Amino acid sequence: MITVKSQAQIEAMRESGRIAGGALLAAKAALKAGMTTAELDKVVYDYIVSQGATPSFLGYSGFPASACISVNDEVIHGIPDDRVLKEGDIVSIDVGACKGGFHGDCADTFPVGNISDEAQRLITVTRRSFYDGIAVYEPGKRVGDISAAIQASIEKAGYSVVREYVGHGIGSHLHEDPDVPNYGKPGRGPRLYANMTIAIEPMVCLKARDIYVGKNNWTVKTRDGSLSAHYENTVLLTETGVEILTPHD
Ligand code: MG
Questions:
Q1: Which terminus of the chain faces fewer neighbouring Cβ atoms within 10 Å, N or C?
Q2: Are the CB atoms for 164 and 170 separated by under 8 Å?
Q3: Rounded mean pLDDT of the chain?
Q4: Centre of ligand 1 from the C-alpha of residue 47, in Å
Q5: 57: nearest Cα among 81, 80, 34
Q6: Contact, 68 vs 93, CB < 8 A?
Q7: pLDDT at site 249
Q8: Which residues have CB atoms below 5 A from the ion given as ligand 1?
Q9: How far is the CA of 166 from the centre of ligand 1 (A)?
Q10: Rounded distance, CA 220 to CA 45, Å?
């Protein structure tokens, strides 16, 4: 069931979204070569708790941390641990915060020091595909319109789109209807209207889009070992466009 949010619920989502975006910025500011992904996760946890919120991911389906931290060929759902980040890595960080019973969810991919031009272009294309996706929204458009715009943006750059994981509605639950795939056809799928809240999150592979789930039963990796990037915001659909609820750029 797709829910349309009340003004009070939207206000709560602005607050939880602000906190999720802030947690991502805190992690970005702390990120440096030589630190572990567990240390980065601690930064996210501390920020979210300092804002009177709770980390949405901690304990979600048994996930053991506050942030998903996925390095290089890891696509999503990386579990923070004692892995040491090094110069040239790219690090995708996905965070969720819950306050007042509502969630915010966002992600971005950051460089560790100097990275290759190829890695930087992947990050740039992934972020841009999100903006190309939201640009086509207007009330009454369908999910497939956004999906197709994201896919076109990524594929014209020569990269591939992960199919098995998708964006989603969000609100009092971290994952709500509708699914928001990063591929699809214009004019297909549920219609979108003002006061719906969705998380749009392209996951992009530098080469083939084939993925697998690693031995920890969480971490999703590219089959060919090539780089992957992720970009996400929770957005409010309005009468005139899209309001980003998790600002972190
Ligand atoms: Mg999400």
A1: N
A2: no
A3: 98
A4: 19
A5: 80
A6: yes
A7: 86
A8: 105, 199, 201
A9: 8
A10: 22
